[in-house]
Amino acid sequence: MIEELRKKAEELLKNDTVKVVFGYGEGSVPERTRPVFITKPEDVNKLTWNKYCVYNLTTYLKRQETRKLGKPAIIVKGCDARTIIVLLKECQIKREDVYILGVTCDGVGDPLATKCESCDVHTPRIYDDLVGEKKENKEVPFEERYAELDEYEKLGEKEKWEFWQKQFSKCIKCYACSNMCPLCFCDRCIVEKNQPQWIDSSAHARGNLSWNVTRAYHLAGRCINCEECQRVCPVDIPLNLLNKKLAKEAEKNFDYRPGYSVDDELAMSTYKEEDSQEFFK
Amino acid sequence: MSKAEAKPENQFEPKIIAFLCNWCTYAGADLAGTGRKEYQANVRIIKLPCTGGIDPLFLIKAFERGADGILVSGCHPGDCHYNSGNYHARRRWNVFRPLLEFCGINPDRIQFSWISAAEGGKWVETINGIVDAVRELGPFESYQKLNTIGPETTGEATAASGETG
Fold it and tell me: What is the pTM of this model?
Protein backbone atom coordinates (compact mmCIF):
# COMPACT_ATOMS: atom_id res chain seq x y z
CA MET A 1 0.00 0.00 0.00
CA ILE A 2 2.87 2.37 0.80
CA GLU A 3 4.43 1.59 -2.58
CA GLU A 4 1.16 2.26 -4.35
CA LEU A 5 0.83 5.56 -2.51
CA ARG A 6 4.37 6.63 -3.40
CA LYS A 7 3.89 5.65 -7.04
CA LYS A 8 0.69 7.64 -7.23
CA ALA A 9 2.29 10.69 -5.63
CA GLU A 10 5.30 10.51 -7.94
CA GLU A 11 3.05 10.31 -10.97
CA LEU A 12 0.98 13.30 -9.85
CA LEU A 13 4.04 15.43 -9.23
CA LYS A 14 5.81 14.34 -12.44
CA ASN A 15 2.94 15.17 -14.76
CA ASP A 16 2.35 18.40 -12.84
CA THR A 17 -1.23 17.59 -11.87
CA VAL A 18 -0.37 18.90 -8.42
CA LYS A 19 2.42 21.02 -6.96
CA VAL A 20 2.60 19.39 -3.56
CA VAL A 21 1.51 16.22 -1.81
CA PHE A 22 0.34 16.43 1.80
CA GLY A 23 1.02 13.11 3.41
CA TYR A 24 2.31 11.25 6.43
CA GLY A 25 6.01 10.77 7.00
CA GLU A 26 8.03 8.86 9.54
CA GLY A 27 8.25 10.45 12.95
CA SER A 28 11.03 10.56 15.50
CA VAL A 29 10.00 7.15 16.86
CA PRO A 30 8.22 4.30 15.04
CA GLU A 31 5.01 4.98 17.00
CA ARG A 32 4.70 8.45 15.57
CA THR A 33 4.19 9.97 12.20
CA ARG A 34 4.48 13.57 11.09
CA PRO A 35 3.00 15.54 8.23
CA VAL A 36 5.22 15.85 5.17
CA PHE A 37 4.86 18.19 2.22
CA ILE A 38 6.39 16.72 -0.88
CA THR A 39 7.13 19.02 -3.78
CA LYS A 40 9.69 16.98 -5.74
CA PRO A 41 9.01 13.57 -7.31
CA GLU A 42 12.32 12.21 -5.99
CA ASP A 43 11.18 12.82 -2.40
CA VAL A 44 8.16 10.52 -2.49
CA ASN A 45 9.96 7.87 -0.46
CA LYS A 46 9.38 10.07 2.55
CA LEU A 47 5.72 9.11 2.40
CA THR A 48 4.51 6.40 4.67
CA TRP A 49 1.27 4.81 5.78
CA ASN A 50 0.62 2.82 8.96
CA LYS A 51 -1.72 2.64 11.90
CA TYR A 52 -0.07 5.64 13.55
CA CYS A 53 -1.35 8.02 10.86
CA VAL A 54 -3.95 9.43 13.23
CA TYR A 55 -3.82 13.07 12.22
CA ASN A 56 -6.26 14.85 9.96
CA LEU A 57 -4.15 16.50 7.27
CA THR A 58 -7.04 18.54 5.93
CA THR A 59 -6.15 21.23 8.48
CA TYR A 60 -3.37 22.25 6.05
CA LEU A 61 -5.97 23.19 3.45
CA LYS A 62 -6.85 26.24 5.52
CA ARG A 63 -3.35 27.51 6.27
CA GLN A 64 -1.69 30.28 4.36
CA GLU A 65 1.77 28.67 4.52
CA THR A 66 0.61 25.48 2.88
CA ARG A 67 -1.82 27.16 0.50
CA LYS A 68 1.13 29.03 -0.96
CA LEU A 69 2.66 25.77 -2.15
CA GLY A 70 0.11 25.45 -4.96
CA LYS A 71 -2.50 22.87 -5.77
CA PRO A 72 -2.20 19.99 -3.32
CA ALA A 73 -2.88 16.31 -3.46
CA ILE A 74 -3.92 15.26 0.00
CA ILE A 75 -3.88 11.84 1.58
CA VAL A 76 -7.12 11.29 3.46
CA LYS A 77 -8.69 8.53 5.48
CA GLY A 78 -12.45 8.10 5.37
CA CYS A 79 -12.98 10.41 8.33
CA ASP A 80 -10.69 13.11 6.91
CA ALA A 81 -12.58 12.94 3.64
CA ARG A 82 -15.69 13.99 5.53
CA THR A 83 -13.88 17.22 6.45
CA ILE A 84 -13.24 17.84 2.76
CA ILE A 85 -16.95 17.46 2.05
CA VAL A 86 -17.76 20.05 4.74
CA LEU A 87 -15.07 22.41 3.41
CA LEU A 88 -16.46 22.07 -0.10
CA LYS A 89 -19.97 22.76 1.09
CA GLU A 90 -18.84 25.78 3.06
CA CYS A 91 -17.03 27.14 -0.01
CA GLN A 92 -13.60 27.03 1.59
CA ILE A 93 -12.05 25.04 -1.23
CA LYS A 94 -13.03 24.30 -4.79
CA ARG A 95 -13.29 20.71 -5.88
CA GLU A 96 -10.87 21.25 -8.77
CA ASP A 97 -8.30 22.88 -6.48
CA VAL A 98 -7.55 19.77 -4.50
CA TYR A 99 -6.63 16.26 -5.56
CA ILE A 100 -7.94 13.73 -3.07
CA LEU A 101 -5.88 10.59 -2.54
CA GLY A 102 -8.18 8.42 -0.46
CA VAL A 103 -6.84 5.54 1.57
CA THR A 104 -8.97 2.77 2.98
CA CYS A 105 -8.47 2.34 6.67
CA ASP A 106 -9.24 -0.19 9.39
CA GLY A 107 -8.75 2.22 12.21
CA VAL A 108 -5.70 4.07 13.46
CA GLY A 109 -3.92 4.58 16.75
CA ASP A 110 -2.52 2.16 19.26
CA PRO A 111 -4.66 1.58 21.24
CA LEU A 112 -7.37 2.15 18.68
CA ALA A 113 -8.54 5.78 18.61
CA THR A 114 -12.03 6.41 20.01
CA LYS A 115 -13.15 7.84 16.69
CA CYS A 116 -12.43 4.51 15.00
CA GLU A 117 -14.64 2.48 17.33
CA SER A 118 -17.83 3.57 15.59
CA CYS A 119 -16.35 4.24 12.16
CA ASP A 120 -18.65 3.98 9.18
CA VAL A 121 -16.28 5.44 6.59
CA HIS A 122 -13.57 2.82 6.13
CA THR A 123 -13.61 3.81 2.46
CA PRO A 124 -13.65 7.59 1.88
CA ARG A 125 -16.87 8.95 0.47
CA ILE A 126 -15.07 11.36 -1.80
CA TYR A 127 -11.80 10.80 -3.65
CA ASP A 128 -10.06 11.15 -7.00
CA ASP A 129 -7.98 8.06 -6.48
CA LEU A 130 -8.36 5.28 -3.99
CA VAL A 131 -5.36 3.45 -2.58
CA GLY A 132 -5.92 0.14 -0.84
CA GLU A 133 -8.63 -2.43 -1.09
CA LYS A 134 -12.15 -1.05 -1.08
CA LYS A 135 -13.97 -1.78 2.19
CA GLU A 136 -17.62 -1.85 3.01
CA ASN A 137 -18.94 1.19 4.90
CA LYS A 138 -21.16 -0.50 7.41
CA GLU A 139 -23.85 1.64 9.04
CA VAL A 140 -23.41 1.99 12.82
CA PRO A 141 -26.62 2.49 14.83
CA PHE A 142 -27.28 5.88 16.44
CA GLU A 143 -27.00 4.67 20.05
CA GLU A 144 -23.68 3.01 19.40
CA ARG A 145 -22.18 6.07 17.77
CA TYR A 146 -22.96 8.26 20.75
CA ALA A 147 -22.53 5.63 23.47
CA GLU A 148 -19.49 7.51 24.80
CA LEU A 149 -21.79 10.30 25.99
CA ASP A 150 -24.09 8.15 28.11
CA GLU A 151 -22.10 8.21 31.31
CA TYR A 152 -21.82 12.02 31.20
CA GLU A 153 -25.42 12.66 30.19
CA LYS A 154 -26.79 10.77 33.14
CA LEU A 155 -24.85 12.83 35.69
CA GLY A 156 -26.84 15.30 37.78
CA GLU A 157 -26.77 19.01 37.08
CA LYS A 158 -24.29 19.72 39.85
CA GLU A 159 -22.00 16.86 38.93
CA LYS A 160 -21.96 17.96 35.30
CA TRP A 161 -21.07 21.48 36.34
CA GLU A 162 -18.31 20.27 38.62
CA PHE A 163 -16.93 17.87 36.02
CA TRP A 164 -16.71 20.54 33.32
CA GLN A 165 -15.40 23.19 35.69
CA LYS A 166 -12.64 20.82 36.66
CA GLN A 167 -11.85 20.22 33.00
CA PHE A 168 -12.11 23.84 31.89
CA SER A 169 -10.04 25.08 34.81
CA LYS A 170 -7.08 23.31 33.21
CA CYS A 171 -7.42 25.31 30.00
CA ILE A 172 -4.48 27.63 29.36
CA LYS A 173 -6.09 29.30 26.34
CA CYS A 174 -3.39 28.16 23.96
CA TYR A 175 -6.02 27.79 21.20
CA ALA A 176 -4.34 24.64 19.92
CA CYS A 177 -7.85 23.17 19.59
CA SER A 178 -8.99 25.79 17.14
CA ASN A 179 -5.65 26.10 15.35
CA MET A 180 -5.61 22.41 14.60
CA CYS A 181 -9.28 22.11 13.74
CA PRO A 182 -9.69 21.92 9.97
CA LEU A 183 -13.10 23.56 10.25
CA CYS A 184 -12.08 26.49 12.47
CA PHE A 185 -11.05 28.66 9.56
CA CYS A 186 -12.16 32.23 10.35
CA ASP A 187 -9.38 34.71 9.58
CA ARG A 188 -10.29 36.50 12.74
CA CYS A 189 -11.65 34.37 15.53
CA ILE A 190 -14.33 35.76 17.85
CA VAL A 191 -11.85 35.33 20.70
CA GLU A 192 -9.51 37.86 19.06
CA LYS A 193 -12.18 40.52 18.86
CA ASN A 194 -12.01 43.00 21.69
CA GLN A 195 -14.47 45.75 20.87
CA PRO A 196 -16.43 44.47 22.63
CA GLN A 197 -14.46 41.71 24.29
CA TRP A 198 -16.87 38.84 23.85
CA ILE A 199 -14.68 36.23 25.40
CA ASP A 200 -12.31 37.05 28.24
CA SER A 201 -8.86 36.32 26.94
CA SER A 202 -7.06 35.41 30.14
CA ALA A 203 -7.20 31.85 31.35
CA HIS A 204 -9.62 32.16 34.25
CA ALA A 205 -12.65 30.02 34.97
CA ARG A 206 -15.21 32.43 33.51
CA GLY A 207 -13.30 33.05 30.29
CA ASN A 208 -12.49 29.37 29.90
CA LEU A 209 -16.15 28.43 30.11
CA SER A 210 -17.23 30.93 27.49
CA TRP A 211 -14.34 30.03 25.20
CA ASN A 212 -14.87 26.28 25.35
CA VAL A 213 -18.64 26.52 24.99
CA THR A 214 -18.32 28.91 22.06
CA ARG A 215 -15.66 26.86 20.31
CA ALA A 216 -17.85 23.79 20.53
CA TYR A 217 -20.99 25.64 19.50
CA HIS A 218 -19.33 27.04 16.38
CA LEU A 219 -18.83 23.44 15.29
CA ALA A 220 -22.46 22.44 15.76
CA GLY A 221 -23.67 20.51 12.76
CA ARG A 222 -20.18 20.78 11.24
CA CYS A 223 -17.77 18.75 13.36
CA ILE A 224 -16.95 15.41 11.77
CA ASN A 225 -15.47 13.99 14.93
CA CYS A 226 -11.82 13.68 13.89
CA GLU A 227 -10.83 14.30 17.53
CA GLU A 228 -7.88 16.48 16.58
CA CYS A 229 -8.83 19.15 19.14
CA GLN A 230 -8.76 16.61 21.90
CA ARG A 231 -5.53 15.05 20.67
CA VAL A 232 -3.63 18.32 20.58
CA CYS A 233 -4.99 19.68 23.85
CA PRO A 234 -1.91 19.98 26.07
CA VAL A 235 -3.99 19.68 29.25
CA ASP A 236 -6.22 16.81 28.08
CA ILE A 237 -9.65 18.41 28.18
CA PRO A 238 -12.12 15.92 26.66
CA LEU A 239 -13.22 18.47 24.05
CA ASN A 240 -14.62 15.88 21.74
CA LEU A 241 -17.36 15.08 24.25
CA LEU A 242 -18.76 18.56 23.65
CA ASN A 243 -18.46 18.19 19.88
CA LYS A 244 -20.08 14.81 20.01
CA LYS A 245 -22.94 16.07 22.13
CA LEU A 246 -23.65 18.75 19.54
CA ALA A 247 -23.40 16.25 16.71
CA LYS A 248 -25.89 14.08 18.53
CA GLU A 249 -28.34 16.94 18.96
CA ALA A 250 -27.97 17.97 15.32
CA GLU A 251 -28.66 14.44 14.20
CA LYS A 252 -31.55 13.94 16.60
CA ASN A 253 -33.25 17.26 15.87
CA PHE A 254 -32.41 17.87 12.23
CA ASP A 255 -31.61 14.37 11.01
CA TYR A 256 -28.32 15.73 9.72
CA ARG A 257 -24.81 14.33 9.74
CA PRO A 258 -22.06 16.49 8.34
CA GLY A 259 -19.62 15.24 5.73
CA TYR A 260 -21.63 12.45 4.19
CA SER A 261 -22.91 14.08 1.06
CA VAL A 262 -22.04 17.15 -0.99
CA ASP A 263 -25.67 17.58 -1.96
CA ASP A 264 -27.50 18.07 1.32
CA GLU A 265 -27.96 21.47 2.95
CA LEU A 266 -25.83 22.52 5.90
CA ALA A 267 -27.70 22.01 9.16
CA MET A 268 -27.19 25.46 10.59
CA SER A 269 -27.80 27.47 7.46
CA THR A 270 -31.21 26.08 6.75
CA TYR A 271 -34.37 25.20 8.67
CA LYS A 272 -37.50 23.13 8.45
CA GLU A 273 -40.91 24.32 9.47
CA GLU A 274 -41.42 21.15 11.45
CA ASP A 275 -38.23 21.55 13.54
CA SER A 276 -38.64 20.58 17.17
CA GLN A 277 -39.86 23.32 19.50
CA GLU A 278 -41.02 21.34 22.49
CA PHE A 279 -39.08 23.58 24.87
CA PHE A 280 -40.64 26.79 23.52
CA LYS A 281 -43.39 28.30 25.61
CA MET B 1 -50.38 45.62 44.57
CA SER B 2 -51.52 42.65 46.61
CA LYS B 3 -48.60 40.58 45.36
CA ALA B 4 -45.99 43.09 46.44
CA GLU B 5 -47.49 43.41 49.90
CA ALA B 6 -47.51 39.67 50.43
CA LYS B 7 -43.81 39.50 49.59
CA PRO B 8 -41.80 38.04 52.44
CA GLU B 9 -38.82 40.02 53.61
CA ASN B 10 -35.36 39.17 52.27
CA GLN B 11 -36.88 37.22 49.44
CA PHE B 12 -34.42 36.60 46.63
CA GLU B 13 -35.24 38.72 43.60
CA PRO B 14 -33.77 37.17 40.45
CA LYS B 15 -32.43 39.26 37.61
CA ILE B 16 -33.99 38.15 34.36
CA ILE B 17 -32.65 39.38 31.04
CA ALA B 18 -35.14 39.18 28.19
CA PHE B 19 -33.93 39.32 24.59
CA LEU B 20 -36.97 40.32 22.58
CA CYS B 21 -37.65 40.77 18.94
CA ASN B 22 -38.75 44.23 17.94
CA TRP B 23 -41.79 43.15 15.98
CA CYS B 24 -43.70 40.70 18.12
CA THR B 25 -42.70 40.12 21.71
CA TYR B 26 -41.57 43.67 22.37
CA ALA B 27 -44.90 44.91 21.06
CA GLY B 28 -46.58 42.24 23.20
CA ALA B 29 -44.77 43.54 26.28
CA ASP B 30 -45.81 47.03 25.29
CA LEU B 31 -49.39 45.89 25.05
CA ALA B 32 -49.20 44.45 28.53
CA GLY B 33 -48.04 47.89 29.68
CA THR B 34 -50.71 49.88 27.89
CA GLY B 35 -53.25 47.39 29.18
CA ARG B 36 -52.01 48.19 32.72
CA LYS B 37 -51.32 44.56 33.39
CA GLU B 38 -49.19 43.87 36.38
CA TYR B 39 -46.25 41.51 36.40
CA GLN B 40 -43.13 41.00 38.47
CA ALA B 41 -40.55 43.71 37.96
CA ASN B 42 -37.50 41.44 37.73
CA VAL B 43 -37.12 41.58 34.01
CA ARG B 44 -34.69 43.76 32.02
CA ILE B 45 -35.61 43.92 28.39
CA ILE B 46 -33.12 44.11 25.55
CA LYS B 47 -34.83 44.85 22.26
CA LEU B 48 -33.29 43.43 19.11
CA PRO B 49 -34.49 43.43 15.51
CA CYS B 50 -35.03 39.68 15.32
CA THR B 51 -34.45 36.50 17.33
CA GLY B 52 -32.50 35.28 14.30
CA GLY B 53 -29.79 37.81 15.14
CA ILE B 54 -29.23 36.64 18.69
CA ASP B 55 -25.82 35.07 19.05
CA PRO B 56 -25.56 32.47 21.82
CA LEU B 57 -22.71 34.60 23.15
CA PHE B 58 -25.31 37.19 24.20
CA LEU B 59 -26.67 34.62 26.61
CA ILE B 60 -23.26 33.70 27.94
CA LYS B 61 -22.44 37.39 28.37
CA ALA B 62 -25.70 37.96 30.24
CA PHE B 63 -24.83 35.20 32.71
CA GLU B 64 -21.33 36.61 33.09
CA ARG B 65 -22.76 40.01 33.94
CA GLY B 66 -24.98 38.63 36.66
CA ALA B 67 -28.20 37.36 35.12
CA ASP B 68 -29.98 34.63 37.05
CA GLY B 69 -32.25 33.73 34.19
CA ILE B 70 -32.70 34.53 30.52
CA LEU B 71 -35.72 34.70 28.27
CA VAL B 72 -35.47 34.73 24.50
CA SER B 73 -38.70 35.52 22.79
CA GLY B 74 -39.85 36.35 19.29
CA CYS B 75 -42.56 35.96 16.70
CA HIS B 76 -44.54 32.76 16.31
CA PRO B 77 -43.29 30.47 13.54
CA GLY B 78 -44.51 31.82 10.24
CA ASP B 79 -44.92 35.36 11.59
CA CYS B 80 -41.32 36.56 11.39
CA HIS B 81 -40.98 40.10 10.03
CA TYR B 82 -37.94 38.88 8.07
CA ASN B 83 -39.69 35.69 6.99
CA SER B 84 -37.36 33.09 8.50
CA GLY B 85 -35.32 34.65 11.33
CA ASN B 86 -37.20 32.81 14.05
CA TYR B 87 -36.82 29.47 12.25
CA HIS B 88 -33.05 29.93 12.17
CA ALA B 89 -33.08 30.96 15.81
CA ARG B 90 -35.05 27.84 16.68
CA ARG B 91 -32.40 25.65 15.06
CA ARG B 92 -29.72 27.43 17.01
CA TRP B 93 -31.44 26.97 20.37
CA ASN B 94 -32.12 23.35 19.52
CA VAL B 95 -28.40 22.67 19.77
CA PHE B 96 -27.28 25.39 22.17
CA ARG B 97 -29.71 24.56 24.96
CA PRO B 98 -28.61 20.90 25.23
CA LEU B 99 -24.97 22.05 25.16
CA LEU B 100 -25.46 24.28 28.20
CA GLU B 101 -27.40 21.54 29.90
CA PHE B 102 -24.52 19.16 29.19
CA CYS B 103 -22.17 21.63 30.88
CA GLY B 104 -24.34 21.63 33.99
CA ILE B 105 -26.46 24.77 33.53
CA ASN B 106 -30.07 24.24 34.53
CA PRO B 107 -32.21 24.59 31.38
CA ASP B 108 -34.90 26.39 33.41
CA ARG B 109 -32.58 29.37 33.57
CA ILE B 110 -32.79 29.84 29.82
CA GLN B 111 -36.30 29.92 28.46
CA PHE B 112 -37.67 30.47 25.01
CA SER B 113 -41.09 31.56 23.92
CA TRP B 114 -43.13 32.83 21.01
CA ILE B 115 -45.24 35.82 21.98
CA SER B 116 -47.05 37.88 19.38
CA ALA B 117 -47.85 41.58 19.47
CA ALA B 118 -51.41 40.72 20.51
CA GLU B 119 -50.44 38.47 23.42
CA GLY B 120 -49.96 40.88 26.32
CA GLY B 121 -51.51 38.29 28.60
CA LYS B 122 -49.10 35.60 27.54
CA TRP B 123 -46.19 37.98 28.20
CA VAL B 124 -47.37 38.52 31.77
CA GLU B 125 -47.77 34.79 32.31
CA THR B 126 -44.36 33.99 30.80
CA ILE B 127 -42.54 36.56 32.89
CA ASN B 128 -44.27 35.54 36.09
CA GLY B 129 -43.48 31.92 35.22
CA ILE B 130 -39.77 32.43 34.63
CA VAL B 131 -39.35 34.73 37.64
CA ASP B 132 -40.97 32.15 39.93
CA ALA B 133 -38.96 29.31 38.41
CA VAL B 134 -35.66 31.12 38.77
CA ARG B 135 -36.51 32.35 42.26
CA GLU B 136 -36.99 28.73 43.18
CA LEU B 137 -33.57 27.85 41.73
CA GLY B 138 -31.92 30.67 43.64
CA PRO B 139 -29.15 33.00 42.53
CA PHE B 140 -26.88 31.64 39.80
CA GLU B 141 -23.93 31.72 42.12
CA SER B 142 -22.04 28.90 40.51
CA TYR B 143 -21.63 31.05 37.40
CA GLN B 144 -21.32 34.43 39.05
CA LYS B 145 -18.66 33.21 41.42
CA LEU B 146 -16.45 31.85 38.67
CA ASN B 147 -12.91 32.99 39.10
CA THR B 148 -11.88 35.96 36.98
CA ILE B 149 -8.32 36.45 38.12
CA GLY B 150 -6.59 33.64 36.34
CA PRO B 151 -5.28 30.33 37.52
CA GLU B 152 -4.19 30.13 41.11
CA THR B 153 -0.81 28.70 41.88
CA THR B 154 -1.62 25.89 44.23
CA GLY B 155 0.91 23.99 46.25
CA GLU B 156 0.31 20.99 44.03
CA ALA B 157 1.10 22.85 40.83
CA THR B 158 4.25 24.34 42.30
CA ALA B 159 5.47 20.93 43.33
CA ALA B 160 4.76 19.53 39.87
CA SER B 161 6.58 22.33 38.08
CA GLY B 162 9.47 21.90 40.49
CA GLU B 163 9.84 18.30 39.39
CA THR B 164 10.01 19.08 35.70
CA GLY B 165 12.28 22.07 36.25
Answer: 0.90
